[in-house]
């Protein structure tokens, strides 16, 4: 009997929310995975696909990491005795060595912490954090130019192969 193979990688269905603007606005240097301290109604709304990272960012305070500005719209079936706050500050769960590394990068080198994606991993909600530097206007233009050239190159190659 052959055992069924489990898919350990992230599948597209496991993705909850993406921060698409992050790669345009920032140069991502490093990535980390963090757990989140959530309430029951937040997990329910995440399963319903009602989470957003559009204006979210991460901060380090008193040796702890926090997620600010993430919007979790309450699901309609949320209990009446709970008063949900969609934009509350959520604690991020990281190892001490990861926290000390992030503190050193943000305080000394001027990096910022940006949430890139939220996904499920073995039944738990995880947040991918990017250690990033802000892009200048000319960097954004250069990236756009490069992307346009890649698109044109693909069109030319496709038309020549036909």
UniProtKB/TrEMBL annotation:
Residues 140-151 have a biased composition (Basic and acidic residues). Residues 131-162 are annotated as: Disordered. It holds the Pfam family SmpB. Gene3D superfamilies: 2.40.280.10. The keyword RNA-binding applies. CDD domains: SmpB (cd09294). It is found in: Cytoplasm. Belongs to the SmpB family. Required for rescue of stalled ribosomes mediated by trans-translation. Binds to transfer-messenger RNA (tmRNA), required for stable association of tmRNA with ribosomes. tmRNA and SmpB together mimic tRNA shape, replacing the anticodon stem-loop with SmpB. tmRNA is encoded by the ssrA gene; the 2 termini fold to resemble tRNA(Ala) and it encodes a 'tag peptide', a short internal open reading frame. During trans-translation Ala-aminoacylated tmRNA acts like a tRNA, entering the A-site of stalled ribosomes, displacing the stalled mRNA. This is SsrA-binding protein. It comes from Natronospira bacteriovora. The gene is smpB.
């Amino acid at each position: 009997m052959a055992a069924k193979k489990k898919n350990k990688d992230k599948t597209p269905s496991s993705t909850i929310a993406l921060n698409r603007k992050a790669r345009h606005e920032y140069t991502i240097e490093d990535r980390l995975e963090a757990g989140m301290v959530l309430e029951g109604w937040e997990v329910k709304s995440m399963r319903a696909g009602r989470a957003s990272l559009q204006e979210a960012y991460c901060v380090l305070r008193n040796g702890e990491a926090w997620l600010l500005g993430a919007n979790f719209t309450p699901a309609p079936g949320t209990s009446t005795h709970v008063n949900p706050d969609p934009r509350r500050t959520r604690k991020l769960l990281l190892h001490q060595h990861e926290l000390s590394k992030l503190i050193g990068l943000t305080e000394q080198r001027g990096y910022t912490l940006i949430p890139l994606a939220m996904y499920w991993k073995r039944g738990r909600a995880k947040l991918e954090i990017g250690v990033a530097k802000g892009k200048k206007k000319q960097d954004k233009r250069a990236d756009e130019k490069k992307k346009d050239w890649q698109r044109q190159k693909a069109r030319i190659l496709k038309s020549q192969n036909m």
